[in-house]
Design goal:
heterodimer; A: TATA-Binding Protein; 4 domains; six-stranded antiparallel β-sheet; 25 strands; about 30% helix; B: mainly alpha; about 75% helix; about 0% strand
Chain lengths: ~550, ~325
């Protein structure tokens, strides 16, 4: 990088307009109410305010990444509050568990967008005017421009011919050219400001797209046993979060039969147990009565059905059990979802038989797909289903009156239940492998494990504004590139009679953006082209740098 | 043949060679420290003049001023010593660059062998990402040296490459393994290459901003001595930093956007305030601040450079800190 470019870029015109030099923005007004409002508006839309707001946005986002967030991991939030009895409520009160939907975070980005609108809209108008304005008048003294070069014409071509050649060359270089008073004025790089405006405007569209998704979208998940199915109905969701303007009848009425789930884990020595393959074979029915069709869902290949997207976001195991009560009747039969606790799918869960008579029964414990019991307790050694086993403690108690209150299926409320003990007074611990069963002491019933199956967690979502979001991000990146890489430049050419009758071609150039390179080289090239085309020698004074 | 072993060996070698290169550049800096203040080559003197003019430094800055006005007979002995010192600086500098080229070759071999051994692009975890990013940083530096003679970046770049590759082979190292299913996507290549390239550009821009701050401070005090005198003027350093950051910013925007598209495929939402996503946005916003600061009166120069350094810190915190400290959906470090 030579000195040339640096010196070419230091003219005051090359620097962006200075907000601080605008006296209207520096003087404190004594202008009454309307003047006060105008002053506030000017403050809000100033670049300095935008900078402060941008900083505030960056700082405000940080706690959201370091403190657990409710919408990302509600359990972590509950744990945090339990662990920090003092800090927890304070954090909750100021919204630190919901940073990104908190009033203060919203205030920052909304102010930022207001500031953006206030800054961009006037600039759009200015730009529209600039587009219709021809390149500016040729300065009287071209040699005072940041880059300047001359060459002596030695042929008899008329000025008009030389000028015409200049115009052609500049047009070839995509300048907007105008001939004025025997000089040529040219300007290029209008796209820079256009890119800048497009970038900022597409941020507005981005916000609109995100808002549409937030207001009309939904996202929910459902645990589905392999071999069973899911019907897109609000009752089938384990959790469902919807936008404020979402209504339940927007859920498309499809059904998905989950037929087969292919899983593979790393068995080699490195990263043993890491997931290698997830393939879910399903049969989809768009609406009741339609012909079902087969579809495979993979991790990066979600299923799109009727506007909704179905993702495979989790999986686990469900031991299939049969519980008989003290009367010998089947009190519960079927698969029970156990939730994975570690990478090897040591899973915890509860088997409940509330209808058992004379006493209701409950089993709480661990399922391990590749089981091992040692001094660290029962656990799984590998995530795949190789040697499954179920370890449970037993609880029994008098039947409970039905209250209709919802109950967590994954945890056991031991109120009214007592742990079952064996003859030695030790709590009963049951180890079951598929195909085995256990008779509870005291004739209280039995537990049989018939096998184990898998469950998958499906996420069903629809984000309506996503096309707008993606489109505006694309436009933003494009605009950004234009605004950073297009070089706005002005060039003027004049042919002057020298003393002694020779004619001199003068070229002056001015870069209108900071950090651009090569102005002086281009100006020198241009004067060469103009002069050489006329059969003249190299530039007599060469290029000249102005500081 | 065990490609994985040779890959690691090449990278360990590269760490050693980068350390040697760093030592050479340190010797270059040290040699420059002894350079008498009057032994300012004409070109630098001219720059000093320019600097005083543009940075509006007090025109009477004694040392840089003296270089331009020194017209009396110069002591012969002094001249010889100066030339000897210059030779020393030149020698150490050349040794440093030569070693950097060798270290760069080793680390390229390491990354390529890693990819061959794994049978996939070598960007599946933190280790692989770091060694790739270091290759890109050093490549950018070597191109700068080749095209513009920017040897003044030698010390910070070799220091960074030695630390980066050193941490990689000691702390971040994980053995080769296939990718988890979540990474089976074309976006894997697009998203990560964009992240690595913009990260390298952010890093070089940040190093330049740091040097800018050092040089600017010396120019303000009017005593540009020792190694600082061999740096480009503050104005130019600011400009070079801007070029790198202006290149990196749209690419980083694209990285985040590509990540959002991939997230929509993989996780069913394009944005979920995952810690990694949050810090990517923080980084983006800080660099947006930088670009705005550069065109705002009172923020140009020093403050903008500080903002650029904050941006770089948040980029690397997002990479190292978030990977190791916070658990999220981007937990691919495998450590």
């Amino acid at each position: 990088m030579t000195d040339v470019e640096t010196k070419a870029e230091v003219s005051p015109e090359a620097l962006p307009p200075d907000e601080g030099s605008d006296p209207r923005k520096r003087l404190a007004p004594a202008l009454g109410f309307r003047g006060g409002l105008r002053w506030l508006w000017a403050q809000l839309t100033s670049m300095r305010t935008a900078l402060v707001l941008l900083f505030a946005l960056a700082v405000a986002a940080i706690p959201g990444s370091l403190i657990p967030q409710r919408d990302v991991s509600p359990i972590a939030v509950a744990d945090f509050i339990a662990d920090h009895p003092l800090l927890g409520p304070v954090y909750a009160a100021v919204g630190l568990f919901d940073v990104f939907s908190s009033a203060w975070f919203s205030a920052i980005y909304l102010l930022l967008f207001v500031s953006l609108v206030g800054c961009i809209v006037p600039r759009v108008l200015v730009y529209a005017r600039a587009l219709r304005t021809p390149p500016p008048r040729t300065p009287r003294n071209l040699s005072r421009l940041p880059a300047y070069a001359t060459a002596t014409l030695q042929t008899d071509e008329t000025d008009d011919v030389v000028r015409q050649r200049t115009v052609t060359e500049l047009r070839r270089q995509r300048y907007r050219v105008i001939e004025r008073d025997g000089t040529v004025a040219a300007e290029r790089g209008y796209l820079r400001e256009a890119g800048n405006l497009v970038f900022h405007l597409s941020l507005l569209f981005l916000l609109v797209g995100v808002a549409v998704g937030g207001l009309f979208g939904f996202r929910g998940s459902s645990v589905v046993m392999v071999g069973q199915g899911f019907a897109n109905n609000i009752t089938q969701y384990d959790d469902l979060s919807t936008g404020a303007w979402f209504s339940d009848d927007q859920l498309p009425p499809f059904t998905i039969a989950v037929n087969r789930f292919r899983v593979a884990f790393e068995t080699g020595p490195v990263q043993t147990g890491a997931a290698r393959l997830f393939e879910l074979e399903t049969e989809v029915t768009d609406r009741p009565g339609d012909q079902p069709y087969a579809k495979t869902i993979e991790v990066n290949k979600p299923l799109t059905v009727d506007g909704a997207t179905v993702h495979l976001i989790g999986h686990g195991y469900a031991p299939v059990v049969r519980v008989r009560d003290g009367n010998g009747d089947v009190a519960f039969s079927g698969p029970v979802v156990f939730l994975p606790q570690d990478g090897n799918f040591t899973s915890a869960g509860v088997i409940k038989a509330p209808d058992g008579r004379p006493e209701r029964l409950a089993f709480e414990g661990i399922f391990a797909p590749t089981a091992r019991v040692d001094d660290r307790g029962p656990r799984s050694l590998f995530p795949d289903l190789i040697d499954p086993a179920l370890y449970v403690n037993v609880w029994s108690g008098p039947p409970k009156t039905e209250t209709g209150e919802p109950e967590n299926v994954y945890s056991l409320d031991t109120a009214g239940l007592t742990p079952l003990k064996d003859a030695d007074g030790q709590p009963v611990r049951i180890l079951l492998k598929p195909g085995t069963s256990y008779q509870l002491p005291g004739g209280k019933g039995s537990l049989e494990m018939t096998g184990a199956t898998r469950w998958v967690k499906l996420q069903i979502s629809d984000t309506p504004g996503i096309a707008v979001v993606l489109g505006s991000i694309g436009a933003a990146v494009l605009g950004l590139c234009l605004s950073l890489f297009v070089r706005p430049r002005r060039v003027w050419v004049r042919i002057r009679e020298e003393a002694g009758g020779s004619r001199l071609v003068e070229v002056g150039g001015l870069d209108r953006a900071d950090a651009r390179a090569g102005l002086s080289e281009d100006v020198a090239d241009l004067v060469q082209t103009v002069a050489l085309g006329a059969g003249a020698a190299a530039p007599d004074r060469g290029e000249k740098e102005n500081q | 043949m065990n490609l994985e072993y040779y890959s690691s060996a090449a990278l360990v070698t590269s760490v050693v060679i980068y350390l040697l290169a760093m030592t050479a550049h340190a010797a270059e800096w040290a040699a420059a420290r002894r350079t008498p203040a009057t032994a300012e080559p004409a070109e630098l003197a001219a720059e000093a003049v320019e600097t005083r003019k543009f940075a509006a430094v007090a025109a009477g800055s004694p040392k840089s001023g003296s270089a331009t006005t020194a017209s009396g007979p110069v002591d012969r002995e002094d001249t010889n010593q100066t030339r000897l010192a210059d030779l020393k600086i030149e020698l150490w500098g050349r040794v440093g660059v030569a070693l950097t080229v060798i270290g760069f070759g080793c680390s390229v071999v390491g990354v390529v062998l890693r990819g061959l051994a794994a049978g996939r692009p070598p960007w599946g975890n933190m280790y692989e990402f770091t060694i790739t990013a270091m290759v890109l940083v050093v490549a950018a530096y070597l191109v700068l040296v080749w095209r513009t003679g920017a040897r003044w970046l030698g010390l910070p770049v070799t220091l960074l490459a030695a630390v980066g590759n050193g941490l990689s082979v000691t702390v971040f190292y994980v053995a080769i393994a296939p990718l988890v299913p979540a990474l089976h996507s074309v976006w894997f290549v697009i998203h990560i290459v964009a992240a690595a390239v913009s990260g390298a550009a952010f890093t070089i821009g940040g190093l330049m901003s740091a040097l800018f701050l050092a040089r600017q401070r010396a120019e303000r005090r009017g005593s540009v001595t020792g190694y600082l005198k061999r740096l480009p003027t503050a104005r130019k350093l600011d400009l070079y930093a801007y070029r790198f950051l202006a290149f990196a910013f749209p690419l980083w925007t694209f990285t985040v956007a590509a990540g959002a598209i991939w997230a929509e495929y993989a996780w069913g939402r394009y944005w979920g305030w995952d810690p990694k996503e949050t810090w990517a946005l923080v980084t983006w916003v800080v660099y947006a601040c930088y670009l705005h600061a550069r065109s705002t009166a009172g923020w140009r120069g020093t403050r903008a450079a500080v903002v650029a350094l904050i941006g770089l810190a948040s980029f690397w915190f997002n990479f190292v800190g978030i990977n190791l400290l916070v658990s999220g959906l981007h937990s691919y470090a495998g450590i």
